[in-house]
Amino acid sequence: MSKEKQITAVKGMNDILPQESARWEWLEDVVRKVMARSAYRNIRTPIMEHTQLFTRGLGEVTDIVEKEMYSFQDRADKNGDAEHLTLRPESTAGVVRAVSEHNMLYEGGKRLYYMGPMFRRERPQRGRYRQFHQIGAEALGFGGPEVDAELILLAAQLWDALGIKNWRLELNSLGQPDERREHRAALIAYFESHADQLDEDARRRLHANPLRILDTKNPAMQSLVEGAPRLMDYLGEASQKHLEAVQAILKANGIDYSINPRLVRGLDYYNLTVFEFITEKLGSQGTICGGGRYDYLIQEIGGKAAPAVGWALGVERVLELLKEEGVQTPEPAPDAYAIIPDVSAVPAAMRCLYALRSEGVAVQMHAGTGEGMGSMKSQFKKADASGARYALIFGADELAAGELTVKALRDGAGEQQRQSLTEVSKWATALK
């Protein structure tokens, strides 16, 4: 019989193995603490949504919708109807859909955060995968510039909590729809006058969504884009004051930033403030967090109009940046490792371990193969390799006396004492 070809993971969709997963858990724990301090609450939305949510919400003439979404037609129901579904390429649209569908803004604004996988069919490279993960924060129902600033400060506090120092902040304003319409007309006229310099994507988007041309990654078009009309020059007084108010709060908090008039972000739902946190340590994948205000998205997907602002960070990129900056994340280790010299000791040992775990002590039990448990020497080597601070020895002499031996493996290495098997609660705390 021929050997079947080994099945491997889908290209661009990676396994996160236990040693690496520990770093993810640490990052997620830090995020939860930072979010809680600013009263942001967790929301979890489906990985799959109706395709229309993204085509209407993100904009049909965007790279995500045109080129990157994993979309398909579901199986037909008994009436012959089949839904068009998409694996979420980002989470803001889903959060907005959930908030609108469940009337969450009925009693006032909501501060929410999420974590989870997203899906885009891109060329896999460092920090950019087909299944990638985002953490995001959204404040819905709040229209003031102070909430824009709060979200930016929330991200800055997260960098502090993670120990990330190599970042810079860029700001821009995309104004309001009427200001963008005036700017749009100027952009079309400008690019039409330089039609011979436009690439295929730019020519296709010229009349459908010329703002997207400013987000081109084509090096040959950078000088042309630099000379294009700036949206900043078309902002009305209210939009200018909104941006100035955001800047004033950032300055008051000692947050450095720069104005980038070409910053447009990759999605169509933004208005007024947009921002990105960028690092120089990850090359072309330097944007680690981005977001802005999206006051018209809820109405765009069929809900009652309400202002909103938010951001999302790329988990893989942040973890890469932590490595680049030399930030050490905690290595998981049990409090104790149970050494069991003989298989006959297993029932008594496991009864004791059950009690210890109930007291909050993390204990790794040595497990043998077949009838043997392995030599004491090999068990102690595994105990040391586990990172445990203590070894719990269930020897025959100890068990005959209704006891076990607790031996220090780290601080005070070699020190040991007997403890009662039946009075675990009296000494368990010392192991934690």
Describe the protein's architecture and organization.
The chain is of the alpha+beta class and 432 residues long. The model has no long low-confidence stretch (mean pLDDT 90). It folds into 2 domains: 18-175 and 235-324, 2-Layer Sandwich (BirA Bifunctional Protein, domain 2); 336-431, Rossmann fold, CATH 3.40.50.800. It has helices at 18-37, 51-57, 63-68, 92-101, 145-162, 177-192, 200-205, 222-226, 237-252, 297-300, 315-324, 346-358, 376-385, 396-400, 424-427; strands spanning 41-42, 48-50, 70-73, 84-87, 110-119, 131-140, 168-173, 258-259, 271-278, 287-293, 308-314, 336-339, 363-365, 390-393, 403-408, 416-420. α1 (18-37) packs across α5 (145-162) and α5 (145-162) runs parallel beside α9. The strands form 3 sheets. Strands 1-5-6-11-10-9-7-8 form an 8-stranded mixed beta sheet, with helices on both faces. Strands 13-12-14-15-16 form a 5-stranded mixed beta sheet, with helices on both faces. Strands 2-4-3 form a 3-stranded antiparallel beta sheet.
Write the CATH homologous superfamily of the largest domain.
Bira Bifunctional Protein, Domain 2
Shape: elongated
Give helix % range: 25-40%
Main sheet? 8 strands, mixed
User: Averaging pLDDT over every residue, what do you get?
Assistant: 90
Low-confidence stretches: none
Query: At the first level of CATH, what is the class of the largest domain?
Result: Alpha Beta
